[in-house]
Design brief:
This protein is of the alpha/beta class. It is built from six helices and seven strands; from the N terminus they run αβαββαβαβαβαβ. It is globular. The structure holds NADP nicotinamide-adenine-dinucleotide phosphate (NAP).
C-alpha cells in the first residue's frame, strides 16, 4: 500500500505534508487514516498525548502535552519539512475528577485554567512554534472548535470551562487569520465545529441523545473534504463541516 501511494504521488506530481495534532483521539485518528490513504500525502506529522499504535509508514509520531509549554516549544525542533495542512484535533471536555460544570457552584479555578491551556493556549502556541514551517504556498489550517464555544449561540449556559476555552480558541484563530493574511503564502485558517461525533470526549454525553450521532470516520471524511475545498476568502471564519458559517 505504501509503495502504491508513493508511486502514485510521483506520477501525479502533487504532494503535501500534513500535520495533525491529537491524532490519537477519535476524530484525529480517523482523519489520520483518511489522509494516509490520499495519494497526494507524502508525510504526516502526528502528535499524540498518550501512546498510540502505528497506522502508516507515512506517519512521524511526536509526543505532545499541550498543558506543558516546554513540550509545545519542543515541537519545532522535531519538524523539518514545510507543512501544507495543519489540523488541530486536540481538545478536552472532562477530567477523571471533574466533568463539565452544570452551575456556578462547580466552578474550580484550576480546572478552568487546564481547559484554557489545552483548548486555547496550547493550540495557539503550538501553531506559533511551528510558524517557520507553515509558509507553504498551499497552507490550510483548521482548528477543531465547538458550536458551544459560540457566544452568540449560547442559550443554555453551563459547561463554563469548555465554552469559555473554545470561545478563546475562536478569538485566537481569528487573530491568526488576520495576522497570517500578511504572509506571502496567503494561508487559509479556520475554526471548525465537527458536529456531534462518537469519541471518548463525547461518550458520556450522547447516551441519552435522540438525534443521530456521526461516527468519527464520517466526521473525518467530511472534515477532509472541507479542508481540501477551503478558499482564501474563508480565512478567519468559524465553519460547520458543510462549510456553513457559524456565529462567533
Ligand atoms: N466529539 C464531539 O462530539 C465533538 C463535538 C464538538 C467539538 N469537538 C471537538 O473536536 C476535537 C476532537 O475531539 P474528539 O471527539 O476526537 O475527542 P477525543 O477522542 O477525546 O480526542 C481529543 C484529543 O485531544 C488530545 N489531548 C487531550 N489533552 C491533551 C493534552 N494535554 N495534550 C495534547 N493532546 C491532548 C487527546 O489525546 P489523548 O487521548 O492521548 O489524551 C486526543 O487525541 C476537540 O477539539 C473537541 O473539542 C468534538
Amino acid at each position: 500500500m505504501f509503495w502504491l501511494t508513493y508511486i502514485s504521488n510521483l506520477v501525479n506530481g502533487e504532494t503535501m505534508n500534513v500535520m495533525i495534532l491529537g491524532a490519537g483521539g477519535g476524530i484525529g485518528l480517523a482523519l489520520l487514516e483518511a489522509y494516509a490513504q490520499a495519494p497526494e500525502t507524502t508525510k504526516i506529522f502526528a502528535t499524540h498525548h498518550r501512546p498510540v499504535s502505528d497506522v502508516s509508514p507515512l506517519v512521524n509520531w511526536l509526543q505532545l502535552d499541550l498543558a506543558d509549554p516546554d513540550s509545545v516549544a519542543a515541537l519545532a525542533a522535531q519538524v523539518d519539512d514545510a507543512i501544507d495542512r495543519w489540523i488541530c484535533c486536540t481538545g478536552i471536555l472532562a477530567y477523571p475528577d471533574h466533568g463539565p460544570e452544570k452551575s456556578l457552584r462547580q466552578l474550580n479555578a484550576e480546572k478552568l485554567q487546564c481547559d484554557h491551556m489545552i483548548n486555547a493556549v496550547g493550540p495557539l502556541t503550538a501553531f506559533a512554534a511551528l510558524a517557520p514551517r507553515l509558509r507553504s504556498s498551499q497552507l490550510r489550517a483548521a482548528f477543531l472548535s465547538a458550536q458551544v464555544g459560540s457566544i452568540e449561540d449560547n442559550r443554555l449556559g453551563g459547561w463554563h470551562g469548555y465554552r469559555m476555552s473554545k470561545a478563546a480558541l475562536n478569538m485566537g484563530v481569528k487573530c491568526l487569520a488576520i495576522e497570517c493574511a500578511r504572509w506571502r503564502n496567503d494561508p487559509t485558517i479556520v475554526a471548525v465545529h465537527p458536529g456531534t461525533t462518537k469519541s471518548n470526549l463525547s461518550r458520556s454525553f450522547i447516551q441519552t441523545r435522540k438525534a443521530p450521532v456521526q461516527s468519527a470516520a464520517v466526521c473525518a471524511d467530511n472534515l477532509k473534504q472541507l479542508i481540501e475545498s477551503l478558499q482564501p476568502e474563508q480565512s478567519g471564519q468559524f465553519l460547520r463541516l458543510s462549510g456553513e458559517r457559524l456565529p462567533w
